[in-house]
Amino acid sequence: DWVMRDHIAEAVEAIRQQVGDEEVILGLSGGVDSSVAAALIHRAIGDQLTCVFVDHGLLRLNEGDMVMDMFAGKLHAKVVRVDASDLFLGKLAGVSDPEQKRKIIGGLFVDVFKAEAAKIKQTHQRHVAWLAQGTIYPDVIESGGAKSKKAVTIKSHHNVGGLPEQLGLKLLEPLRDLFKDEVRELGVALGLPPEMVYRHPFPGPGLGVRILGEVKKDYADLLRRADDIFIQELRNFRDEHTGKTWYDLTSQAFTVFLPVKSVGVMGDGRTYDYVVALRAVQTSDFMTADWAELPYALLKKVSSRIINEVRGINRVTYDVSSKPPATIEWE
Ligand code: XMP
Hints:
Domain GMPS ATP-PPase: 2-199
Subunit structure: Homodimer.
Order of helices and strands: HEHEHEHHEHHEHHHHEEEHE
CATH superfamily of the largest domain: HUPs
Bound molecules: xanthosine-5'-monophosphate
GO molecular function, one term: ATP binding
Shape: globular
Number of strands: 9
Protein name: GMP synthase [glutamine-hydrolyzing]
Low-confidence stretches: 145-159
Largest sheet: 5 strands, parallel
CATH architecture of the largest domain: 3-Layer(aba) Sandwich
EC number: 6.3.5.2
Distance between the termini: 42 Å
């Protein structure tokens, strides 16, 4: 619509004014905010933008390829993909405490990004002067000293405060005035696929906090496949009254890997394999949440597909805990 087109034209002009002929670096995570920021800045300054996509090996199935396909393939943006999965998995070996895992993942993420940004700074002829971030208005409020809704920080969510100073870069935040809904509308208007723009939130530490205890590559591979089946079926099944998919009727849904084995039977044999838990919640603010009353037919389909298609998992459970007292994530 024309209001959004006007808004894009204005934002594009503002970015051009601010940046001039200097270069911009942006950390692409695959999440909505950084994706929309990247698409907007790319619209404004094209190849003056370099995106850095750090793949920590704890992303969902095919996510890295999808991000590259979208930004490098379709938008023709400059994207550097850093495959750091061995580094992350190496440092996570033997670590089972959730907060410790978060610290390691968040810290490494910043290190890898900084190293890559420094490389880009050196190799560009033009002055690399800007670090772009997909900060949106609610982030501004939350970090602005104003009393945040979270009186107690239960979990250290990874953010990158202080990064621009450390890199000697100025901060470019073109989404600072926008609410989430506006960011999504902007993303669609910029040509990003609605499935990407209307995705459930995904935590920075990714599957690292959805594998309980120690993170191992084998666990991550099993979890990725199980989770992909759950998400596919949430997108397939529609509620008969509203016609909406169960993906759209839930606020967040994912699979959790439990590193315990249970007994099962398959054909003539006994199996002794891992367990996963499905989690789906409905919430307006993520501070409280109800577990979603998914249709039994959907749960049945997901369960039988996971057990039949993912060798190594022989039991599927559904999490019926609300927040509080349970949290949405299991770690
Ligand atoms: P909880 O588990 O605290 O989750 O009920 C509330 C929301 O926060 C997300 N979450 C995180 N996001 N880094 C993130 O970027 C984190 O470490 C993290 N921990 C939880 C969670 O996915 C949910 O949307």
